[in-house]
Design a protein that fits this description.
The chain has a five-stranded mixed beta sheet with strand order 2-4-5-7-6, with helices on one face. Strands 1-3 form a two-stranded antiparallel ribbon. The protein starts with a helix and ends with a strand. Helix 1 runs antiparallel to helix 2, helix 3 packs parallel to helix 4 and helix 4 packs antiparallel against helix 5. The chain is an alpha+beta fold. The protein is built from five helices and seven strands; from the N terminus they run ααβαββαββαββ. The longest helix is centred in the N-terminal third of the chain and has 74 residues. The structure holds adenosine-5'-diphosphate (ADP).
């Protein structure tokens, strides 16, 4: 019995070793296939990004030409019959949206292939906000939306890219006006903390339904609401906004109550000077 046991044990050990060897070989094979598939997927993704970038880049020139000629024709707009004037306005709006979409796609493509330029230096938060308010005010005035900005006594400086920070504030401010009700309010504030500065944009608009809130920063997400059906956009603004803030080492936050309004806020590192 002892001899038989010993023989069985040796056999079992041999079998075990053989099994382990096969498992190892199979695991290595699987790993290899997985790595190859991953490399293939990465290459396809890179080609897709490259295609989007080239397509958007090539579209830029004809759209600029169309917009240029439309501007020229518009100078004589009052001479045309009313229906032609309406067609011209629709063409201008559509080409404006197309141009925005192309710019958004280019910015995303640049960020994804890491060719986006971010030049971080100390910048003044109050000046950035005031400049962006100036740009949006005529649109807000048309719908009687008040933009309130309580300026801090001493404006804190942040370490960020000036153009990108203005773009971020402009995007949030634009949304706060676009998705606001007539006679609504937009409140901007600056909160200075130990290591960073928070800029907050609060609106009294239509808000975002709870079930849609997790999608708000996704590419091309647009909420379909009866009240905002006429509002044009690309669904890329918030995606780009978050991407830019994160590239500058900050964070974006938001809260919203449907029917009451939304608050978007972002933090960026404080300049230590
Ligand atoms: P766009 O405004 O071009 O559609 P965004 O990425 O800026 O794209 O916003 C995505 C969607 O999020 C908008 O279509 C809108 O439904 C919703 N949204 C963004 N900001 C607000 C806001 N302040 N109030 C209500 N809804 C908003």
């Amino acid at each position: 019995v002892a001899i038989q046991n010993a023989k069985s044990y040796a056999l079992l050990q041999q079998f075990n070793q053989e099994l382990e060897k096969r498992v190892r070989e199979r695991t290595d094979q699987l790993k290899n296939t997985q790595e190859k598939e991953l490399a293939k997927a990465k290459e396809v993704n890179r080609l897709k990004d490259e295609f989007v970038f080239i397509a958007a880049h090539e579209l830029q020139t004809p759209v600029t030409v169309i917009r240029g000629f439309l501007d020229l024709v518009s100078e004589a707009q009052s001479k045309f019959p009313k229906d032609i004037q309406d067609y011209l306005n629709s063409m201008k709006n559509a080409s404006g949206n197309l141009s925005q979409l192309i710019n958004d796609l280019l910015e995303i493509a640049r960020s994804e292939n890491n060719t986006i330029k971010i030049e971080v230096k100390p910048i003044n938060t109050t000046t950035c906000i005031k400049d962006e308010i100036k740009k949006i005010k005529p649109i807000a005035d048309r719908r009687n939306i008040k933009i309130n900005f309580k300026m801090p006594k001493k404006s804190p400086k942040i370490m960020a890219d000036l153009i990108k920070t203005k773009e971020v504030i402009g995007n949030l401010l634009n949304n706060a006006v676009k998705y606001n009700k007539e006679n609504g309010n937009v409140d901007l504030s600056i909160i200075e903390r130990d290591d960073d500065v928070v800029i907050e944009v609060r609106d009294t608009g239509y808000g975002i339904a709870e079930k849609e809130q997790r999608k708000i920063f996704q590419k091309f997400f647009r909420s379909i609401k009866r009240e905002t059906i006429e509002v044009t956009g690309t669904g890329l603004g918030l995606f780009i906004t978050r991407m830019l803030i994160e590239k500058m080492g900050g964070k974006i936050m938001f809260s919203s109550v449907e029917g009451k309004g939304s608050t978007f806020a972002f933090s960026l590192p404080k300049a230590k000077i």
